[in-house]
């Protein structure tokens, strides 16, 4: 054995204790370190030839890299839609690396059954029926990709061709209809060989990101019976708007389409009694995308993909190899998602659900929703700002009242303050900012700190040119 490895093995308990102490120190400082920082220029170091052992690597990391990292797991990181890491999910993540299971084949371990149990718990959490079967993927983009891959196979089934065998070209042009598709849908269609231009954006309700069901019905009518894919939204990224899922599902009585729902974070609305109605009809979808590194507060990377057509899923993703054996009635995960080998991704989710249960996670969701509403009220009371949409769930979308074009400067000022991190967008043609609440640590005191930062950062209007 290489002497450095040999030394580390001999000192493993002590080294892991030091690593644990380092993690505890980092977590204790999460609320105090700059929430985000503009990345500094870094010159890459040469590849170590001899290496410095774990202690040396830790010293180098702590000096060179860790200070530049964001407090992405902290309470005032409100950019994108970003969850943190509950204590139990962190422990689950540590054990994931420790046990280093590959759960995709059912030949050697009970790990795949832990994934099945976790998928069933999540299905119940979101009010889906047992006809929906889940598989773990790395994030909502891959969950959308997987759902749309199954949709693609379904289109083939309707036309009497197997896309898995003959390729996407066998389908001819494909129609994907959606009101406000997330950017990951275009990426997925590109990867699937269907092309980004397959997306046809359908009219939205006035002043909303939700699709106009009448407009969608008309668009489907114009396809004249050609099978299509509809991508519905349960929680849009800008304003957390929801399509009327039940009304959309009912359109299948008149038109042939696969209903895929991007519920990356919106599925969690099912945990709040006042918001659960937003997810009505989710169960009727043919495929559903839910991210777990967002509102379940497990560490990156984790999401789940549900579908009612596991047979088609296995047709797309099956990995035929003599050593894997036949597919069987309950295919191993190797046959269900893009990866052949991967980590035991379910374990952090299993830990957090086992530790806090439905009620613990419902409390996080309800608190985040209340905090978003509170920030919305504070912003509505600031003359410098204008809300661009009602706060429907956990996202606050707003802009500078008199100079929206300066949102970029405002974003940089907020980031430079180290107090909060919010991300930019364009909503209905207006440059805007979003604050998305999905971290289990966030409290009212954090909202007040963010509000104060916004007050301080409000830019004075530029001088009127003479
Ligand atoms: C609605 C929606 N879909 C898909 C995604 C993509 O998620 P990921 O970055 O985890 O792939 C996001 C991310 O914010 C999202 O909000």
TrEMBL record:
- Tell me which family the UniProt entry assigns to this protein: Belongs to the group II decarboxylase family.
Note the superkingdom of the native organism: Bacteria
Q: Which GO terms describe its molecular function?
A: aromatic-L-amino-acid decarboxylase activity; pyridoxal phosphate binding
Which keywords accompany this UniProt record? Decarboxylase, Lyase, Pyridoxal phosphate
What name goes with this protein? Pyridoxal-dependent decarboxylase
Cofactor(s) named in the record: pyridoxal 5'-phosphate
Cross-referenced Pfam families? Pyridoxal_deC (PF00282)
Sites of N6-(pyridoxal phosphate)lysine modification: 294
Q: Name one GO biological process term.
A: carboxylic acid metabolic process
SUPFAM superfamilies hit by this protein: PLP-dependent transferases
From what organism does this protein derive? Streptosporangium roseum (strain ATCC 12428 / DSM 43021 / JCM 3005 / KCTC 9067 / NCIMB 10171 / NRRL 2505 / NI 9100)
């Amino acid at each position: 054995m290489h002497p450095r490895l040999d030394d580390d093995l001999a000192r493993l308990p002590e080294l892991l204790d030091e690593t644990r102490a380092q993690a505890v120190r980092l977590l204790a400082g999460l609320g105090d370190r700059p929430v985000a920082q503009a990345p500094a220029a870094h010159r890459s170091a040469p590849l170590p030839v001899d290496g410095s052992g774990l202690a040396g690597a830790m010293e180098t990391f702590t000096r060179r890299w860790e200070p530049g990292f964001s407090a992405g797991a902290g309470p005032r990181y409100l950019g994108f839609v970003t969850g943190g890491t509950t204590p139990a999910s962190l422990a689950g993540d540590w054990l994931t690396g420790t046990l280093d299971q590959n759960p995709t084949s059912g030949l050697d371990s009970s790990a795949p059954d832990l994934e099945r149990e976790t998928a069933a718990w999540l299905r119940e959490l979101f009010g889906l029926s047992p006809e929906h079967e889940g598989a773990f993927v790395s994030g909502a983009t891959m969950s959308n990709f997987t759902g749309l891959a199954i949709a693609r196979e379904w289109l083939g089934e309707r036309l009497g061709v197997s896309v898995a065998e003959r390729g996407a070209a066998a389908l001819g042009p494909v129609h994907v209809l959606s009101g406000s598709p997330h950017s990951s849908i275009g990426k997925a269609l590109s990867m699937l060989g269907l092309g980004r231009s397959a997306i046809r954006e359908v009219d939205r309700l006035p002043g909303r990101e939700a699709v106009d069901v009448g407009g969608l019905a008309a668009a489907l009518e114009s396809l004249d019976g050609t099978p299509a894919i509809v991508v519905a939204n349960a929680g849009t990224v800008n304003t957390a708007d929801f399509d009327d899922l039940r009304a959309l599902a009912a359109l299948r009585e008149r038109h042939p389409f696969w209903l895929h729902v991007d519920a990356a974070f919106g599925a969690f609305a099912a945990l709040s009694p006042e918001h659960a109605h937003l997810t009505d009809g989710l169960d009727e979808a043919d495929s559903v995308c839910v991210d777990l590194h967002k509102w379940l507060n497990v560490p990156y990377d984790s999401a789940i993909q549900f579908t009612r057509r596991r047979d088609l899923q296995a047709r797309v993703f099956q990995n035929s190899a003599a050593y894997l054996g036949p597919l069987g009635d309950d295919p191993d995960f190797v046959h269900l998602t893009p990866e052949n080998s991967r980590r035991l991704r379910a374990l952090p989710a299993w830990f957090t659900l086992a530790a806090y249960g439905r009620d613990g996670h419902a409390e996080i969701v309800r608190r985040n929703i209340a905090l978003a509403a509170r920030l919305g009220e504070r912003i509505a009371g600031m003359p410098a700002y204008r809300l661009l949409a009602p706060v429907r769930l956990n996202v606050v979308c707003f802009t500078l009242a008199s100079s929206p074009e300066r949102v970029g400067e405002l974003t940089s000022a907020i980031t430079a303050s180290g107090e909060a991190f919010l991300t930019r967008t364009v909503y209905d043609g207006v440059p805007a900012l979003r604050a998305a609440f999905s971290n289990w640590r966030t409290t009212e005191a954090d909202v007040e700190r963010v509000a104060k930062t916004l007050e301080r950062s409000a830019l004075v209007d530029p001088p009127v040119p003479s």
